[in-house]
Write a structure and sequence with these properties.
The chain is an alpha+beta fold and 467 residues long. 27% of the residues lie in helices and 29% in strands.
Length: 467
């Protein structure tokens, strides 16, 4: 399961007629909670922040004492945004438990100040099941209508309303918490009669027994007309920013640079170059494209073409007589002298770009040691590790052909699992498929059964290491 889908939080303005949350958003008092199942798998659920002191409400059957629980605060990177949690108190009859989260900096929820009435509408806001998170699906925001039984004034979903078997928060039209949905067994988008719902009275009991200061808001007493324009203004303000204007300037300046050395017809040549040379750029020089240095790519391609032409002319000179040789030399001086100088300059940049050597070393589970290296730029690393035709090779059947990718600078190096069969971890923390995690110098990287570390060394003058 990859925690890589859109996970955004939104502070709700109270007092709206209808609960409208931007797509892909969640209330700021909801957090993703993960239980580490194995070295490569986690089980997610939606947690509700009860207080500013880091107390989070989750289902009682989500975790047991001794389980490793992580709450994500402000991002999906477990290393940077993960906060360790432990069980503070269980409410077994209600099917709930409270976690104490170390270092969680979230404002607690606002509870609805009044009971739900017959026909009221509520919204389920929750993170989707694990398989949908792995596909990058946004959080759920689904509405339902409430029936209230006159015998005990206890609400329930109407027979016409259906919600999926998902754990999440139930809010009113102002975004105040009115209840929680508790999934039965494994979460899914299917409707289940075993899904439980706990409402405001149960939440009040938990607040009272935990001694948590209550924050309430009466949605019925709100004035809806005032906050809505504020939300619209904040959304429209960044829209007029002219982000498109600099792009034509960059293209024009790029065309000018290309047109100057080529001198033939100014209008036709850029069009031919763009169509003829646009496709090979990402395949042949990915590091340059990642860095955004489009000019460097064009100079490389131009220099390669001119160098090829120079080689062809030299070959003809050697095979021709002295008279024709002198004519070709004159033509060479007139037409090709500037490009030759550029080719030499570009060649001089090669050792500057590949200035370092990235070395991987470690051992397999059976004790077999391995080591490999490749030439990189310290400030532009783009490397694939695997057992196949990759930059760094680990000869082990437990390592996938293309296992992980490394990108960035050596001091800010990121690791992405490329869908490996046996998983990836950093210092024991799983790196899930599609997730981006930071790798610091000295960290232990585990790929399948290979335990290894990375080291960056200055490249030797003789050009050692695979280029």
């Amino acid at each position: 399961m990859a925690v890589s889908g859109p996970v955004l939080s939104q502070a709700l303005e109270t007092g709206g007629e209808a609960y409208v949350l931007p797509p892909g958003s969640m209330p700021s008092w909801t957090v993703p909670v993960l239980r580490l199942v194995s070295a490569t798998h986690v089980e997610p659920t939606t947690g509700v922040v009860l207080s500013d002191t880091g107390l989070v409400l989750v289902p009682e059957d989500f975790a047991s004492v001794g389980d490793e629980i992580i709450v994500l605060d402000g991002g999906t990177d477990i290393i940077r945004h993960g906060r360790p949690a432990q069980i503070e108190r269980k409410f077994t009859f209600e099917g709930l438990q409270v976690l104490a989260v170390e270092g969680l900096t979230r404002r607690g929820l606002t509870l609805a100040a009044t009971r739900l009435m017959q026909g009221d509408e509520v919204w389920l806001t929750a993170f989707p099941p694990a398989e949908l998170i792995a596909e990058g699906k946004p959080p759920l925001n689904m509405s339902a209508t409430v029936d209230v039984f006159s015998e005990n004034n206890r609400p329930s979903l109407s027979s016409e309303s259906t919600l999926p078997n998902v754990t999440g928060a139930l809010v009113d039209s102002c975004g105040n918490l009115v209840g929680v949905s508790l999934a039965d067994d494994i979460q899914s988008m299917e409707v289940s009669s075993a899904t439980r719902y706990q409402w405001r009275d149960t939440l009040l009991k938990i607040f009272t027994e935990m001694g948590i200061a209550l924050r309430e808001f009466d949605c019925n007493a709100a004035q809806p007309a005032e906050p809505e324009p504020e939300i619209e203004e904040t959304i429209e303000e960044p829209a007029p920013e002219p982000e498109v204007e600099p792009e034509p300037e960059a293209e024009e300046s790029l065309e000018e640079v290309i047109e100057e050395p080529t001198e033939p017809p100014a209008e036709d040549m850029p069009d031919v170059d763009e169509h003829a040379l646009q496709e090979p750029v990402p395949d042949s020089l990915p590091p340059f494209e990642d860095k955004g240095s489009g000019l460097a790519v064009w100079f490389w391609l131009l220099a390669a073409l001119l160098a090829g032409g120079l080689g062809y002319v030299t070959h003809r000179i050697r095979r021709s007589g002295p008279e024709r040789s002198s004519e070709l030399e004159n033509a060479e001086k007139e037409n090709l002298e500037p490009p030759v100088a550029e080719t030499a300059d570009e060649a001089a940049e090669i050792p500057v770009l590949l200035d370092s050597e990235l070395r991987i070393s470690g051992s397999l589970r059976d004790g077999t040691e391995f080591e490999d290296c490749c030439a990189v730029s310290e400030n532009a690393i783009n490397v694939i590790i695997g057992r196949g035709d990759t930059d760094l090779v680990i000869s082990s059947p437990a390592v996938s052909r293309r296992h992980v990718s490394l990108n960035g600078t050596f001091r800010e190096l990121t690791v992405s699992d490329l869908g490996s069969s046996n998983g990836t971890s950093i210092n024991g923390v799983p790196c899930l498929e599609g997730e981006i995690m930071f790798l610091e110098p000295g960290d232990v990287l585990v790929l399948g059964d290979a335990r290894c570390t990375l080291e960056l060394r200055p490249r030797s003058p003789d050009g050692g290491g695979k280029a």
